[in-house]
Structure prediction request, 556 residues.
Amino acid sequence: MSYISLYRKYRPHKFKDVVGQNVVVKILENSILNNKIGHAYIFSGPRGTGKTSIAKIFARAVNCLNSTDGDVCGECDSCKSNIEEELDIVEIDAASNNGVDEIREITNNVKLMPSNLKYRIYIIDEVHMLSTSAFNALLKTLEEPPAHAIFILATTEVNKIPATVISRCQKFDFKKINEKDIVNRLKFILESENRKLDDSIINTIAKLSDGGLRDAINLLDQALSLNKEDITVDDIYNLIGDINENAVFDILTAITSGNIKDVIKIVNQYYESGKNFIKVCEKLEILIKDILIYNNTENYFDKEYEDKLSNYSRIDTDLFIELSTQLFDLNYDLKKSNNQKTVAEIYLIKMTLLFIEKTNTPKAISTKEDDNIQIQEIAENTNKTVNKKQETETEESSELDELLIENKKININNCLYNANKQLKNEFVNNFVSIKEFVTNKKYNSIANLLLKSTPEVVGETNILFTFKNNFEVVLFEKNINEIVKLLKMIYNKDYVVVAVTTDEWNDIKAEYIKNINSGKKYEYQELKKIPQKKKKSTELQESIESIFGEEYISED
Ligand SMILES: [Zn+2]
Prediction:
């Protein structure tokens, strides 16, 4: 036997079984009871609030042969006929049949008498999807409907329906169903199914479904089909890829306290549990909006929530406004990206760096002492450039650093020596090919990173890229071998690449122009050899690896 979804199984067949919408139901019942049935109705309201269910019950009830209270009797021939096969109850999904032809067919057939029932009912779902000409065709029928025809137009967007159509109809506004009613219905279903769920879970389902009973029942169905003994509230959030309130606070705390390690850890957890990063981003946006409201009003939210918000009240408003701008950009980029995780990571790290930079007290808020030291190192190293010699470094690694810095300078020099406008134009024209690698499992992270760069100088063998942020330059340098490989696949050339921040580039450019004007000639320079044993990771690379993971950028 095929599985029947709980939603279909517990769909109401009588007015008295309908959850919520008491006003609508009462008026419809009375109209049947008093024989004052209209010929055109608009049922408007949010999704999953019972518009189609009530339309079907109404179609039954007006045709019931021995209704005494305006409801369906459930016993007569008319009530017992299969609604799916009933010729006189016509259901149309305007979202799929939005052509004028379908409506013309209806308006032609509407003149014919019903085959079995008293009334022929046309239920047009998502009616706002009809084209203008289809609406015009429908309007003609609505102006002079035959006595045996009833139209029920259901829509979630009544504002898209022409006023001429609305004025011909009785309009019913369906409300979101309140949480208590949803909870009771879910409990009824659980009892009938002989299943048990904790109250906290039932309440969470009701809350998340936001007044839509259909969503609530579908979510219950999914939860039950997990076939787990102890379903948790988190399971429910996972089912819809959403995150719960505490998890939003967790990530905001990690960002505002400058704890990059926690940010990355949380992003990984989200990723592993299949969270939808767009939802995460939206939840963060709402939280920040709430903090701004809390900081500027009194007693706006309930006490418990305000207590949580108060933890962020000392943070500068400007920082939060900057954060919400970034979240807005993140949301936009997430919707375009095939690799949500990397996009989310880059933005969230960027936001965290913002707090490290602006508040300069990552120590005070972070949780573990050794994390703090590491975070400070990362913050310093990524915010300044690699060329700062650290006093604590061993002689060997500082020697290596000097070599790397020197080679970077040589690379920049060679780029400037090599620079060729025509080659640059050709390179830039093909640069969009990188987008093809955004869906490639192995190269998606690198492709996404490169798409954030600008190829500033291009020569026969050398390219200089610029990035807005230094941490992107750090990621670039860490993955330089993979980047060279990717470029080879696209351009069939072994490029020597180097990356700097936009700020650094402006300085380099100014110096270059000054040099050229004073007659200096750039010459090709050989790179310094790096001793094999020193090639291992530098302290900076190690600390980055421990935070980003060794395979940070090349992971799936
Ligand atoms: Zn009946």
